[in-house]
Amino acid sequence: MAYQFKLAEKLVILNDRGQGVLIRMNHIKKVFTDSKRRPSYFTEKSNESAVKYINRKFPNIDIRGGSQHLSSIQKQKSAVLEGLHSYYESFIDVMEFRDNVYELLNTIDACQCFFDIAVNFDLTKNYLDLIVTYASVFYMLSRIDDKKAIVGLYNCAYEFSNGNSDPSFPRLGQMFIEYDHPWKKLSEEFGPHTKSVTGALLSLRMLYPRRNLSADQWRSAQLLSLLASPAAMLSPTCCDTMACEYLSTEVMERWILIGFLLCHSSLNTNADSQNLWKTALRSGLYLTVIRDEVLNIHKLHAVTQQMNRNFLRNALKELTKVLEDEPALLGPKALYVFMALSFSRDEVLWLVRHAENIPKTKTPEDYADSQLAELLYHMEKLRTLLAQHRYVIQRYHLQYLSQYDALVLNDIIQGMYVCPEEESVLMSSFVSTLSAMSLKHLDAGEEFDLKAFRLDWLRLQAYTSTGKAPLALKDYPDLAKVMNMAQFHTRMMDSVNELLCETADLSILCFHARVFEKLFSQSSEDVSMQRYLTAFPVICSHFSQCLHPLCPEEVSTVKNQSLKLCVSFLEEISRQTCTVVLEICAEQCNLHEKLLPKHSAETISTARNKKLKKSLPKKGDVPKEKPGTESLRKDRAIVTNLDKMHQALTELCASYSICADFTVFKHIIVPAEFLLSQLEIRLNKVIVQMANYNQSTHEIARPSDLLAGIQAYVTSLHSLSCYINIDVTRLVKNVLLQQTQPLDSYGSQTITTLYTNWFLEGLLRQASSALIVHCPTTQCFVNQNTENEQSFHAEEYADICGLRSLAELIGPYGLKFLNENLMWHIISQVGELKKLVSDNMDVLVQMRANFENPDAMSDLQKKLTGCENVLKRMTIIGVILSFRSMVQEALGEIMDRHCPFIMRPIKCLKDLISPEGDIKVTLSVYEMASAAGLPCEIDPALVSAIANMQTDNSSIEDEFKITCLLLVFIAVSLPTLCLDPNSFYSRAQGGHQNNIHCLATAVNHIAAAMFTVQRKNTRIQLQEFLKVASSILLQLGQNVERMEIKNRDSIYVILHMIVEQSPFLSQDMLETCFPYVLLRNAYREVHKTFIHTMES
Hints:
Elements: H1 7-33, H2 48-57, H3 67-75, H4 77-110, H5 121-142, H6 147-162, H7 169-178, H8 182-189, H9 194-202, H10 207-211, H11 215-220, H12 242-245, H13 249-262, H14 265-269, H15 271-281, E1 286-290, E2 293-296, H16 305-325, H17 334-355, H18 372-388, H19 390-414, H20 421-435, H21 439-443, H22 451-463, H23 477-494, H24 496-504, H25 513-525, H26 535-539, H27 554-593, H28 600-611, H29 641-654, E3 662-664, E4 667-669, H30 671-691, H31 703-718, H32 728-738, H33 751-768, E5 772-775, E6 780-783, H34 800-839, H35 841-849, H36 854-863, H37 867-898, H38 900-912, H39 919-931, H40 940-947, H41 956-973, E7 985-986, E8 991-992, H42 998-1013, H43 1018-1034, H44 1048-1061, H45 1067-1073, H46 1076-1095
Antiparallel strand pairs: 1-2, 3-4, 5-6, 7-8
Helix pairs in contact: 1-4, 1-5, 2-6, 4-5, 4-6, 5-13, 6-7, 9-13, 13-15, 16-17, 16-18, 17-18, 17-24, 19-20, 19-23, 20-22, 22-23, 23-24, 25-27, 27-29, 27-30, 27-31, 30-32, 31-34, 33-34, 34-37, 34-40, 34-41, 35-36, 35-41, 37-38, 37-41, 37-42, 38-39, 40-42, 41-43, 42-44, 43-44, 44-46
């Protein structure tokens, strides 16, 4: 009886086992052909003699007679046993697989089994799969060149360790010898099985030619079209051979070609066999064995696949559109989807295996396809639709199974005149299983598992297909038809994913990486294919389906390859998209730049000249285009470069719509994030490039111009949201936030660094030399009128507008970095000032005690050295602090505009704090206020910088003494400023031509910071400075004939500026030591000079 042989169970188990063994053989071949992965025993020079000896003597290896060759193996026998054990066991698996298959095939022959793909589909398919897998295993075994060395080395090590040979070695050695020429040996083996194999193959003689039609025949039959017959659109798709309709053509070709290769005698005796063989041969040059291993069938071939792919592209596009619009059609037309996927997969696999092995031909383009992306895209869309509408498919087929299939099957069973007990039990269970299904179970969220139903159907096929079966399935074609249809319907309930693996699995592309990348490259160059490019990385998410439990070593290799391909594809798509986006932004930025106010002067001048009837432009002069002329078109057919870029952007962004995310080996991949990442990298670079910083010439873009350019870019980037669902605001915030740091997230310089360097090296360095003057009246820096023309206009960078733009660009973080660099320069000057004080310590102590004694001061003044140096360094500090206060003011205005709700509490808190209170609390509040751009009585950054200065372990009292003497030094040095002809006060600028008016800022800030660090009263010490300075300056009035009198009035003004800017001094204090009348006369004199200059 067929029941006891368990043919169905053995076929299923051996097919799975055989697939695992085949994959394992392929893995071993790859390991031993890869020099990097090859075990060390085969590469070491010391083992070379042993390997050669084993190969020469195999399988009769005498370890005693060959001890001189095998000595190296004896030394490392444990390592050899451990390293080669898995490979040795794999070869034993092959031997065991052969024994079991041999036994099963003999049993099938003894039972005289009947095979017909249209009747007992599952039995026939499993039988043919087993034959092909069996032949493929031994073909792959023959391709492992080192198999004898592997087994021989292992057995020698085993014998050295255990004293006797491994029990399996003799049979393994014999098997290797027998299968050195696999096809010859296999054809001998299959001689007795020719009848069964030929019978199974000939059942394809109707199916295979029907499936192997040309594109024109498909088109005339309106294959896969739901719109061809609208009246039948809602009718269920039924046929006598449901499973045959989506059976892979590649699988059938493998059955036919390998099957007749094993049983070639039937080709001479049977015309149908020969016709089927010839038809299969015409399908291609190569046959896939496993992974990227192919079998070269013949040399000549006529290519028709290009037309097939063209047809399938359009057919799948139509099918996808209809099903997207009406997903309920997935119920009755599910078969169409799997047919479409199977046909498309066959064409893709044909292209891949032939593109890897292109024959010498005059038309190599037949083996390439730049439009493959569209076909892959629609395949993925169909897969997505099946996943999205799983409930629709299940609901439809549940009702079909319970209300139609169960009833028809029951009627057929009732009409049977012979039904043995075992078969009766199985068929009754079929009816009861289908009848018990209810929508309540589906709506309750229960998972269906109908694998037992399908396995029972396979068992029934095995029972009823033997030669002496009481119930012969071939006599009941209606039963086979209904059961095959019901089986497909059950698969729609619980194994759609498994069916997708059969019909749409493209995981073989993982092993043809070079071809896969080439196909992607060809598609990416075709503009019409760019909207489908994301199909390539999405396909990588299916590569995990090709793994097998028998070969866990493949997991890491396949995983790494999958992620590598996926990431490279997405990066390339993102790079192309990013390039187009930034080109559009650059174009819009150029258009926006034409509208900047700085370009209006020429237009105004032209209009004015025209009004005054001045000389008109010459005939040869080309009139300048006005902004906006690019939008005027005389013909709608004219396509501008911007139009082309927008079209390219539309195509590229459409490719991201295939899915929001997908998973590759437990890694969640979000395509849009790759685009954001690319945009972030490129936008950072673009912003830095827009700054146009030239370190050698100290040229840089105006902050206001850069801000306008960035705003134009940001406006254009926001339009990207119309094409693709990405968070542009997050992107812009990330990029601009990175630009407020010294380095971006990739370690490159930002505009914060560039502008910091430029203001320090370009503007402030020249301001320190008085080539650029600080102008308090207009709140900016201006160039001096010198013979050497400056490379830039300071007022274009360091005016209110420029500094506001700078604050907008680099924000509080960037300005903090700028301030830290400014502080470093100030501290270096303070250090030099302390050295000067130390050098003149004794003289300054005496001057501090005798500042009211003119005669003593006159003598001491002659002993004092470095007065000009002190004032020069203090002026530099003043210039830097003046620039900093302008920047802080600009930042405060920007902060007020952007976040007034934060600024108001900060202002209130700052107003409540007094410098006389707890200094730590005061400084912490001032630090917060300063970071927000608010002016503070004590500069917290300067306090922190001075506190961190190296003082050579000097005490606070010593530091306090030096600070006091520094103020005395500054005070007694003021008269020397009169000797400088540039020390005159300019009313127009509100300052002096040599920037000495910045001394007021320097004195106030430095004194406040240093005395705060030393915990001393700033007010008292500044009053002392005021007395000394007043006394020294009053002595200038007594020297009427000396040179110092020339700019005396301008120097008096500095004293007034110090008091005016100081939060610790008042006009009352000044009047107690310096007559107000002198200040009034001084201002009158400097203003007279201004009036005289204006009149002249």
